[in-house]
Structure formats: C-alpha cells, structure tokens
Amino acid sequence: MATAVSPRLPAAAARERDRRPFGRRVLEGVAEHALAVALSAAFVLPLLVCVVTSVMTQQQAGTGELVPQPLHWGNFREVFEVMPFARDLWNTLLYAGLSAVGIVVSSVPVAYAVSRMRWRGRNAFFVVVLATMMIPAQVTSLPLYVMYAHLGWIGTLKPLIVPAFFGDAFSIFLLRQFFLTIPEETIEAARVDGASEYRILRQIVVPMARPALAAVGLFAFMFAWNDFYNPLLYSGNSASGQTLAVGLAGLAKSAHQSAYQLQMAASLMFLLPVLLLFMSAQKVFIEGIAMSGSKG
Amino acid sequence: MTSTTASTTADRRPGSSRRRSRRGSPSRSPWSAVLVMVSPFLVGLAVFTLYPVVTTLYYSFTNFQLGSIRPTEFVGLRNYERLFTSSDTFWVGVRNTLWMVLIMVPLRTLYAMFAAWVVGSVRRGARVYRTLFFVPAIVPVVGASLAFIVMLSPTGPVNALLAKVGIEGPAWFGDPQWSKPSLVLMALWACGDTIVIFSAAMLDVPRELYEAADLDGVGRWQRYRHITLPFLSPVILFSVVTGMIYTFQYFTEAFVASGSASAVQDSSQLLGYPGQSLLFYTTDLYQQGFVYFKTGYASAMAWMLFLVIFGATVVMLRMSRSLVHDSGRP
C-alpha cells in the first residue's frame, strides 16, 4: 500500500551485512550505476531532443544535431502566431481544472458509500463501478456524440466537463483504497456519538484523506490535460472548443509540419505545467500510482 | 476531537446501532444516506454508460448514418457480416492491433521489470533514477509522440548517432516496416508508471527471505527467480491485463504519429500512414464512425471490441490463477 513506497531499497537492505570481497562489491556497484545511467539516458534523450530543438532555427531543426547554434528563442513567440495557443491553453485549463473538481466532488461520496457504509448490495454495486472501467470509450462515444449534437454541445467544452460531475470509476477505486485505511474505531465512535453519515464524511473522512483527494484531483487534472480522444471527437472540428492536445496534433499535421522547432516549442509549453505539477507533488503521485497496482 | 456533549447524549439515549455493534453484528447504514451518496454516480451510470452501451448495440443492427437524411433501417446482422467478409480495412486494423498486443505488451512489462530491478539494486541515487524513469510516463501522449517523431525522423538525432557508428538508420515512422517498432520504443519509454508499481511490489517482499537466502549463499539470479519473482507475479498480471486492455484501445499515439508523418503526403491520405501500417482497430473505427459517418458499421466494430476485450480479460484472469502467487492476500 501507500506506505510501501519509501526510499528504502530491498536489495540494499538485504546487503547490509555484505560478505562479498571489497573489490567485487565495487565492481558490481559500478556496473549497476553504469546500467542505471544508460537507462536514464534512454529515458531522458527524447525530452532533451524536445528542449534543444525548441530553440533551434528552422534550418537546423531536423538535422539531427543536438547543439542549437545559434539559440533561437523566437520559436516560443512564433507558436502563438501559427496556432491559437492562448485560446487552446485556456480551454485546456478549463477542461482539466473543472473536471478535476467535478471528479473529486462526485467520487468522494461514492467511495465512502462503498468503503465505510454498510448496506445490502454494496459489493455488487462496487463490481458495477469497476466494470465500467472495462468499457472502451469507443462503445459509448457514438451515441454520446449524437446526444451532444442534439443538445448543441458539440464544439463546446460541455461534453468534456459535465460527465466529470457524475463520478469516475478509477477515482472511486483509488479513494476507496485510501478510505479503507482509516481506522474503523474512528468512524464507529462518531456513529455512536450520533453523527450522521454526511457529517462523518465531511468532518472525519475528508480531512483525514486529504492526500488521497489531492492524488485523485491531480490524476484527473493530468488525465484531462493529456486527453486527446474526447476533445478530438467532441470539440475537435470546432476551433472554439479545441484543447492543446488537439491543437498540437493539428500543428504537426498542418503546413508547418517541417517546422520541428515550432512543434517542439509548443510541446514544451504543453508539457511544462504537467512537469511542474508532478515535481511539486511527486510523493502524492507515486504513492497513488503504486496504490493503483496494489492488490487491495 | 468529537465533543463530549455528543457522547453524553448518546449515552443517555443509546442508539440501536450501538447495541447491535456491541453484539458484534455490523450496523446498517440508512438507505436514504446511501442513496444520497451514490445517486450522482447512478445518474452518470445511466446517462453516460448504460444508455450509450445499449444504444450502440441497437445502432449496430441498423444502417444509421449520422447527419444523413436517409431513414434508418434495421439491417440485422449485416454490419457484422460485412466486418468479416468484405475487403474493408477491418482486418488490417485487427492484424496491426494484435501485433501490438502480442509484441508491445510483453516487451513493456519485461522492460519495466528490468528497470525496476535496476532501481532496486543500485545502492545510492535510486530516487533520482526512479524520478528520471518516471517522468516520461506523465508527459502528455501528444507531446511525447511529437518528440519521438522528431527524434526518429530520418535525419533526426537517433539516425545521426547511428551514422556515427556506421549504421544507416531506418526511416522509422516513414517506413511501414519500422513504424510499429517505433511505437513500441515509445511505449517502453513511457512505462514509468509500471516501473513504480513494480518497485513498490519489490518493497513488499519480506526482508527475512533475502537475509535467509544470503546466509544460504544463494546467487543473485536464484534469489530473484525464487523470492522476488513470486512476489511480483500479481503485479505482472496487473501490468499484462491493463496493458492488453490499453493496447486494444490504442489510439492517440497511432493517430498523431501517422497523422503528422503523412502531412507532407496527399491530404486525403487515410489514417494509418505509412501504407496502412499504423491503421489500428480504433483508428479505423474512428474513421468509419466520425469521418465517413457510417455509424451503424462503426457501432458493430465497437461492440466487437467490447466483446474481445471482455473475453480476453476473463481468459487471462482465469489462466493466470494457477500462475499467480498471491501472498498475504486476506
């Protein structure tokens, strides 16, 4: 569970009383780090390419060189001219921010009901929640498209934001995992004291599960920020409802295709908020990810 | 904490819930509260899941065409028949998707296990390495795809590096032979979330087992094979099943990669460039449903996908029952 992710390392701990000869230990240490550095390079290289290409001139971008000569900062400004970057950014912020709020607000009570309340059919209900995760988006998107078209929502952000306020299976699952770690005595004591379920949820569970809410909110934000399929379908063809993911793919396909430096500058501005968010909440993230794979 | 006045009130009027919980049988929550808690989800389930799932099934038996004025007719199984018999792009998408499921999913799992093992065995700096390995996983797919297209462009940095050691690099996304392997490389690069899950599972292995193995002078590989691996097996299962479900629905990477690679070509170029090598089941479905507006046909495709994903998941979970070691499971 969440507590499992700590900087302690099993192999290192097991070798606390290492009986191998010193020379061999050093050699193995060097080999391990060489391997780790090589892997790190493989993970970092594409991002490095993205960064250096974003400050290259058009002539240099795509030549395979990794040292920008000369530095061309104008690409970042030019992105705003070749695509409606500011508007797409605003749309993306609206989509990601509002859907994160919606998912947290609507998923918390459901997670509470399936983890800390007792009622007949609870387990069956939870299975239904999990089962909805298995339904491919392609199965629901055709009728939803028709429905949104009737409502006049195509080309707006509504098809992206409104469903977020009706709960999200993955978030319910993650929140349930966290809620289950709250001691039963705490909740039962409040019940005995006559607190209503709403009050227990609001005044005990939510404050105790604040890191969990943060994790779920961050996941929802990042999912929406990265989402391509839904914005492509419901807002893609109309420029006014376009998000950055769709705008960026459009930039790559447009006449500017050969302008790698602009694509990379735009990509970088697209990645940066997510990277900053990740760095400021790295622990929350990693624990949430580890938890999603736990047996629970 | 909770106010004392509240507890005295409860003492004066002992609620039925208290008496029941004393006897050990759990108290039931009031139905009204349960309903209030779950009703937003129930409404969402009905509107955004159940209704569309059933409607897609209905569409799949009709010749419904979005935006067409032609009246919709019931055509029975004709859409399904067409999937299997006509020479449409259907089988191309099926073949390409299966290729990805069979090649990408196992490779990604193995690579993530390997990276987690590397992180777990270095003595210092594991946190730094883990962060570096993880960052690509949070990078938006569209941005990552574009970075890969630049990196793997025929005259890009990777081929420049290969040229330095005397290897002529392929055209990557521009070559039907190499376009799918390029996507596999991208998937390996972005496997950080799986690495984190494997790392967490490795920390769950009881340390006494390693110590006992050390005392017995067991080798590294033996220790991994007989101690670590059994503890990882539930995570391997998780990774393979979720990877498979994801890959059956593989869309964004393929859409962006084939879209931007084909941009210099004729603009009427269909999805799947180069040479239909990147036409996957879902990109084909998108094309049929939202480009050609063959809603009925696309609905049949969607339902087939649903059945296959469901079936494959059930089969995987059944088959793995004997292989997965579930330690400490309550």
TrEMBL record, chain A:
This is Carbohydrate ABC transporter permease. SUPFAM superfamilies: MetI-like. Residues 89-281 form the ABC transmembrane type-1 domain. It is a multi-pass membrane protein. It is found in: Cell membrane. It comes from the Bacteria. The keyword Transmembrane applies. The lineage of its organism: Bacteria, Bacillati, Actinomycetota, Actinomycetes, Kineosporiales. Its main location: membrane. Belongs to the binding-protein-dependent transport system permease family. It comes from Angustibacter luteus. Keywords: Cell membrane, Membrane, Transmembrane, Transmembrane helix, Transport. The keyword Membrane applies. The chain crosses the membrane at residues 34-56, 93-112, 124-148, 160-179, 200-225, 260-281. Pfam families: BPD_transp_1.
From TrEMBL, chain B:
It holds the Pfam family BPD_transp_1. The chain crosses the membrane at residues 29-51, 98-119, 131-152, 183-206, 227-248, 300-319. Residues 1-29 are annotated as: Disordered. InterPro entries: ABC_transporter_permease (IPR051393), MetI-like (IPR000515), MetI-like_sf (IPR035906). It is a multi-pass membrane protein. It is found in: Cell membrane. Gene3D superfamilies: MetI-like. CDD domains: TM_PBP2 (cd06261). Residues 94-316 form the ABC transmembrane type-1 domain. Residues 15-25 have a biased composition (Basic residues). Keywords: Cell membrane, Membrane, Transmembrane, Transmembrane helix, Transport. Belongs to the binding-protein-dependent transport system permease family. This is Carbohydrate ABC transporter permease.
